[in-house]
Structure formats: structure tokens, C-alpha cells
Design a protein that fits this description.
Keywords: Ion transport, Transport. GO terms for molecular function: proton-transporting ATPase activity, rotational mechanism. This is V-type proton ATPase subunit E. InterPro entries: ATPase_E_C (IPR038495), ATPase_V1_Esu (IPR002842). The chain is α+β, with helices and mostly antiparallel strands. The chain folds into two domains: 101 residues; 81 residues, hypothetical protein PF0899 fold. A hairpin with a 4-residue loop joins strand 3 and strand 4.
Length: 195
């Protein structure tokens, strides 16, 4: 082998070794980069799933809050409308009571209430009050019952009130009290079964 051939052989061998070493380094670097890329993809996917879960929970919470606000607004509106209807119903009830107070049945009602109070008092001293609007009925009621009646300073919308002071008893057959009690107890019943 000549020197020239030896140099060529050495050059070829060196180049092949250098190429093989270079290819090994490149392959190793490529494998490392691919592993880093795969790890990055896995981490990005995990972060994306975590974010999706967090956003889903957040969206669900916002939806629930919006629904709760809407239900609260609806209940407030319903309560306001029910209050308006309740007030209107009792305005009509007061009008009906005022109409009733102009009838003969009302006079009979007053007589029954006075008689019941007399029976309840069982001879004890008692003051029976009439509503100021019933002042014109006073003398006829006194004649019919034989008891002195007092006109109240307070308007109690018809009926009578009687006081037995010795026993601290108030007999209240006034329409004002009856209507107020009914107003306080009045509730709208309803729900899905109402047609």
C-alpha cells in the first residue's frame, strides 16, 4: 500500500467514523428532543384537561348563581304580586263589610253580639261600645237590649266591643279586628296542582 492509498484509507475510515459518531450524536439529540416534546405534549394535555375541568366547574357555578338570582327575583316578584292581590282582596272585603253594615242583617248581628256579651258577663258590670258609624242605631239597640251603649272614640269598622273591667276581659266582635286577623292569616295556596 502506498502512502497515498494509506492516507486515503485513513481519510475514508476517519470520515466514516466521524459520520457514524455525528449520526449517533444527532440521533441521540433527536431522541432527547422527541422525549422532551412528548413530555411537553403530555404536560400541555394535562394542563388543558385541568383548565377544562376548572372552567367547567366555574361555568356550572356561574349557571347556578344565575339560576339562584333568577329564582330569588321570581320569588320577590311573586311575593309583590301576591301582596298586591291580597291588598286588593281585602279592599274588596272592606267594601263588602261597609255594604253589609247598611243592611237589616247587620242590625240583627249587633243585637246578637250585645246579647252574647250580656250572657257572658253574667250580671257583672260591663261597657259595650258601638262603632261611631253606628251612632244612629244606638237608641233602637238600647231599647231592644235594655242596656246602655257607649259610642267608641275609635273607629273599629263596625261590630261591637265590650269590656268587663272586673275580669280584665275584652270581647271584640269588631270587623276591624276580624279583618286584620284574616289578613294576617291569609296565604295564597297554590302550586302545580292549581289549574
Amino acid at each position: 500500500m502506498t502512502l497515498e492509498e494509506k492516507i486515503n484509507h485513513l481519510r475514508t475510515t476517519s470520515m466514516e467514523e466521524a459520520r457514524a459518531e455525528s449520526n449517533a450524536i444527532i440521533d441521540s439529540y433527536r431522541d432527547a428532543l422527541e422525549k422532551v416534546f412528548e413530555d411537553h405534549k403530555i404536560e400541555a394535555k394535562r394542563q388543558m384537561q385541568t383548565r377544562i375541568k376548572a372552567e367547567t366547574v366555574n361555568a356550572r357555578q356561574q349557571k347556578n348563581q344565575a339560576m339562584a338570582r333568577a329564582q330569588l327575583d321570581l320569588k320577590r316578584r311573586q311575593g309583590r304580586i301576591q301582596q298586591e292581590l291580597k291588598d286588593k282582596i281585602f279592599e274588596e272585603a272592606y267594601a263588602l263589610v261597609n255594604d253589609y253594615m247598611k243592611t237589616a242583617e247587620y242590625d240583627d248581628f249587633l243585637l246578637r253580639c250585645i246579647h252574647n256579651a250580656i250572657v257572658f258577663a253574667n250580671g257583672e258590670e260591663m261597657t259595650i261600645y258601638l262603632n261611631p258609624s253606628d251612632e244612629e242605631k244606638r237608641s233602637s239597640l238600647e231599647d231592644a237590649t235594655g242596656i246602655h251603649l257607649t259610642i267608641s272614640a275609635e273607629d273599629f269598622t263596625g261590630g261591637i266591643r265590650a269590656v268587663i273591667r272586673s275580669r280584665n276581659i275584652l270581647i271584640d266582635h269588631s270587623f276591624k279586628t276580624a279583618l286584620r286577623n284574616e289578613y294576617d292569616k291569609f296565604l295564597f295556596s297554590g302550586g302545580d296542582s292549581i289549574v
